[in-house]
Amino acid sequence: MNVTVYLPGDAVALALGADAVAAALTTQAAQHGLAMHLVRTGSRGLFWLEPLLEVATPQGRVAYGPVAVDDLPGLFAARFWTGAAHPKCLGLTEAIPYLARQQRLTLRRIGVVAPHSLADYLAQGGGAGLAQARSMAPAEIVRRITDSGLRGRGGAAFPTGIKWQTVRDAPAGQKYIVCNADEGDSGTFADRLLMEGDPFCLLEGMAIAGLAVGATQGYLYVRSEYPHAITALQTARDAVGAWLGDFQIEVRKAAGSYVCGEETALLESLEGRRGVVRAKPPLPAIAGLFGQPTVVNNVITLACVPDILARGAAFYQALGFGRSRGTLPVQLAGNIRYGGLVEVPFGLTLRQLLYDYGGGSRSGRPLRAVQVGGPLGAYLPEAQFDTRLDYESFAAIGASLGHGGIVAFDDTVDMAVQARFAMAFCALESCGKCTPCRVGSQRGVELIDQIRGGDATSLDLLRTLCDTMIHTSLCAMGGMAPLPVLSIIHHFPEDFR
Fold first, then answer.
1. What is the pTM of this model?
2. Which residues pair with 60 in a beta bridge?
3. What's the fold here for domain 2-98?
């Protein structure tokens, strides 16, 4: 009997013992005379169930998890390869409520395909967007992206079509596509999941961008702490053959600096220099990498592109809320019962994500605050949990969606400590080029320490310092670092007393 089983090989599953489970699976299958084909996939993002073992049955994939080596004798005794009942059995994978309530689009193949197999990717619908793009004029490609309403899935949410149009219109002998895969925000992992679990999707999106703007060279700038993603991308790139045409992609390991997530600092690093923010203008779309017109998009933005080309702008435009179109991979982390990936159309509320998907706090205590958008994002109190997942709705309350990372805290959190962390993080990660960020962040740490020590008079000075940093810093690092501090002063003033 031939059996196909699936086990994630992504970073989270590996940290939880997936390799040991894989080795024991192979050994015990041989002992039972079972002809087993083990496929190492990416993770579906249900982290509390990792390692998640799946088996192909006539009814569909059946899941078991979380599976440890000690669980395997019982699973083999129950003949798990038939989809049999067992305490670890979760039923059909697609019917697990956490997955079934989502609308996975961009990340629908993670956990499904073998990341190293181009044939597997194409069999699961990959490649249709690139094929469509090759039948279109560059201007038509850009128009389709513009009409879809796709916005950058990073911090600024800038309309992707406008950026591409600017690069397309800029005269140059060489243009570049740069993928910002330096995912460094706390509580974010969607980029990593896609790179480790569905790397061909990202390569396809970059190639389509190249066709749209006239670029033949792409660079993937990947966070240095993501060795498994780097390996997956290099393996995929080496496997594409002639599929991407004359579009070439180079994978670069990032410099290990948070500020290199800022597009101009990233370009400096790519050019072999220290990652320091550039003054703008000129914009990278006009004078970017090596002084040439450059598209800089993050992973999820580029991964959205193939579906828009394959299914049309109207399909993507029909999803979402307000000016936020399509879906957003939300990442639930921190003190949350069911941490993981939730891809849904824009428009759900924070409360729905935290409770309907996240299941509330892991500690069982009331949730007091959530930070959305990474370490530079505002802290939101329970009174704002009904805010919709939408760029404009978040902007209206002085917050930012950023990359979609949500970090939850229960009622034991000391928010003054979190405020200090925000400033200390900026002081540590500042590139040092501008005084408001370099000096202001360190002074902010000192002021918060004084306030926590009982000097209430320093609170007004802290507010003034934050205002100065917001309006005079060279980039978003210094400009946004005060936002979590100000949100805590506003929503949780009692923690400063």
1. 0.95
2. 57
3. Glutaredoxin (3.40.30)
